Amino acid sequence: MRKLMTWCTCLIFVLFVGCSQSPEPSNKLLLWHWMTDRNDALEKLAQEYQQKTGIEVDVQLFAPSDSYSQKVIAAAQASVLPDIYGILDKKSIVSDFIQAGFVANLTDAMQVDGGAWENSLFDKALADKRFDAGNNYGIKPGIYGVPIDVTNEQIIYNKKLLSKAGISKPPLTFEEFVKDGQLLRRVGITPFVSGWGELWLLDCFASNYAFNIMGEDKVFATFRGQVKYTDPDWIKVFNVFVELRDKGILIDGIVTKGNKYAEQDFALERAAFSFNGSWCVNVYHDMNPDLIYGVIPPPPISTAFPLKIWGSAGSTFVVNGSSPNKDKAIAFLKWLTAKEQQMVLAEATNNLPSNKEALLSISPILGEFAKGMDQSTHPNIWPVNEDPSVSEAFDRGIQAIIIGEKTPQQVAQEVQIVKDRQMAKGNN
Amino acid sequence: MDQKAKSAAIFKDNFQNFLFVLPAFAIFCTFYIYPFLNMIYISFQDWIGIGPMHFIGLQNYKELMGDKLWWDSIWHAGYITLFALCFQNPLAFALALACDREIRLKRFYRVVFFIAPVLSEVVVGLIWNWILNPEMQNGQHIGLLNHFLYASGFPQLVHDWLGDPKTALTTIAIVNSWKGFGWGFIILLAGLQTIDKQLYEAAKIDGAGAWKTFTNVTIPMMLPVILVVMVLTILGCMQVFVLILTLVNEGLVNHTDVPVTRIFSAMQNTNRFGYACSEAVIFGLILVCVSFITKKFSDKAKQV
Q1: Quick check: B60 contacting A, CB < 8 Å?
Q2: Annotated domain spans of chain A
Q3: Is residue B194 a part of any domain in this protein?
Q4: Where are the alpha helices (DSSP H) in B152-272?
Q5: Is residue B57 one of the residues assigned to a domain?
Q6: Do A100 and B51 touch (CB under 8 A)?
Q7: B249 vs A: CB within 8 A
Q8: Average pLDDT by stretches of 10, chain A with 428 residues
Q9: pTM
Q10: 3-class SS of residue B192
Q11: Which of A273, A284, B141, B238 has its CA 20 to 30 Å from the CA of residue B41?
């Protein structure tokens, strides 16, 4: 009996010791990420860092990103976050992590040597995890994340298929885009593909045109509840999809298509245009290295306001604010985003580097994507975001328009009903 | 032995037993009871997954009662389940009956019918995505089904099966039944093989034909097994999720939503963990009720 008791006590002790986190600083950093395509490069760089500094960086991959996201939230709830990790969520969620002490403020480290580290990185990428003075979230102003690459979403066109349809240059306006689409259809080529079964990509495309048609002030005023979705400008946004549908521009089954399938369609030359993010360079290279393509922003439909594309930090790491290895983690991220390491990452993964100096070494096609950064924006840097339930109703409404089930007016009214309900809830 | 020593011995004995049960009990409490109770607790909160929770009482449940999309999703899952009960299980039973006889290549058929269930739902989704692909390249249909329909002289039947609200849910129900019927087949076949062959011989001597033997011997003997298969089908189909995600991603507008995709969407897209938990609680209650009704039905059928 005594023996049994001793064994049980030992077991409980071992369990407790095993479950608790060591509060002592160590020479080992733990990094969690979700980027399957960048895992090898990150592991290689981590080894190089260990040889250089003696600090081991344990790179752990958890994919896909949805599962990773849930893992991070669960780890935060249990206070077992690693030294370095990424938060794949909206700014409001990031602010909750900061308030809970799970994200370190990196401003001081960024501003050492006259802000050399901060200045080396794309400002728009830093904005993803930057909180300005007087922000709505009540967060102390500062920079809370380090982007390791940048990304933006644009239209990609297949040069060979365009010339097959007698199109010599990519479209500059929406009218030309539709016309080119019809020409392509006539010669049996599907004009446009995108993974609009994933609502965020559809939302991204729609918001590009919303900015173009009514300007950002009116878009944000709608989010604040000052402009209704039944406004004629929003109807024009919905009509973009009516025109794409009626002129036969969209690939069959676009509303249930995942982005992986859309990427496959474009890489296998089943469609001439695609709407996708800059990561597609890597994907297309793997699927069809001989693919010849170019990049343009979505062709504007109006000259009233500039068309803005989504672009910001592709993948951003944060440092665990409660980690005993905080300083070492910051030093590693500083090294990772230095020019040399960024060049290695860009070359290995075909992603846009977050360090501006590393742009000199990127491929011409990535260079075309990089040009778009000047006209980019992102929900993470907007002063106000739409309520997620309204966004869902908006995106599903566009899907309903595409399949011919609802008219723009019907969708506008339905979205406005959800908006009114959420506004009323917010006021209570 | 005095009373004190006797009590000590009983205590020691009980305590020892308790210690043996303790690890399993602790694991069960940690991974089943605690999350379950916590889910109920969160369902009364307004919570985005991190940060403070705000107690809102029955607000989530009140909203859920009026959430048309939620009740539509229950109907969709019910439709998929009904489809499986009406087509998948009878087909599984018919094939099990066929394979229970002395036919050539019966082992081969058993393996073939069991391939679909052992495949992961993601793989099944990928295969069917290719079969149902509505696109064309160089004037040819890429999807196997549309290609076959076109080549067989039925071009009017060529269709975007998953992209049309009229056909999407039925198509998913068919794929789900294709994936699931093998389980029913194996369980029913195992049940058929336990029926004493003497019963069939006795029926034959009494002059019973094939149909009489089937209705008076096979069906009564198989009733408990059929009911088990029905319960498993109901519980499995009501919780269909991965297959839908791989076939239509986040869904065709709201026409392919099922309860689990709604729960996932509330957590993933709108960060409403409290609301998602209230959905999970109600869905769990619905499943318990369905299981309870089936159990009652099963008990009655056994008595008959």
Answers
A1: no
A2: 29-151+312-381, 153-311+384-427
A3: yes
A4: 168-193, 197-205, 210-213, 219-238, 242-248, 259-268
A5: no
A6: yes
A7: yes
A8: 49 44 75 90 95 95 85 88 90 87 95 92 86 86 93 95 95 97 95 94 96 96 96 97 97 92 94 94 91 96 94 88 94 95 88 87 87 86 88 95 96 96 78
A9: 0.83
A10: helix
A11: B238
Q: Of B35, B217, B194, nearest to B100 (Cα)?
A: B194
In a domain, B25, yes or no: no
Structural contact between residues B81 and B233, judged by C-beta atoms closer than 8 angstroms: yes
Per CB-CB distance under 8 Å, the chain B contacts of A100 are 50-51
The pLDDT of residue A70 is 83
Average pLDDT over residues B180-208: 91
Give the mean model confidence (pLDDT) for residues B263-281. 90
Q: Which of B78, B117, B73 is nearest to B95 (CA)?
A: B117
Q: Which residues pair with A149 in a beta bridge?
A: A315, A353
Q: Which CATH class is domain A29-151+312-381?
A: alpha beta
Specify the residue for token string 């019910």: B78
- Omega within 30 of 0 (cis) for the link into A64: yes
Cα–Cα distance between B182 and B116 in angstroms, integer? 7
* Domain range enclosing B228: 64-303
Smallest CA–CA distance, residue B89 to chain A, in Å, is 29
Nearest to B161 by CA among A405, A194, A252, A197: A252
- Give the pairing type, strands A190-193 and A271-277: parallel
The Cα A415–Cα A394 span in angstroms is 6
What value does the mean pLDDT take over residues B280-290? 94
How many inter-chain contacts (A to B, CB under 8 Å) are there? 97
Mean pLDDT, rounded, of chain A: 90
Residues of A with CB under 8 A from a CB of B: 1, 4, 8, 66, 69-70, 73, 76-77, 89-90, 92-93, 96-97, 99-100, 188, 190, 195, 197-199, 251-258, 261, 265, 268, 270, 388-389, 391-392, 396, 399-400, 403, 405
Tell me how many domains chain B contains: 1
Task: Identify all chain B residues contacting A252, using CB atoms and an 8 Å cutoff.
Answer: 134-136, 160, 163
Task: Please provide the CATH number assigned to the domain covering A153-311+384-427.
Answer: 3.40.190.10
| CATH number of domain containing B180 | 1.10.3720.10
pLDDT at residue number A363 = 85
Model confidence at B304, pLDDT cuts 50, 70, 90, reads low
Q: Are A194 and A275 in contact (CB under 8 A)?
A: yes
Give the residue carrying structure tokens 């608790």. Answer: A20
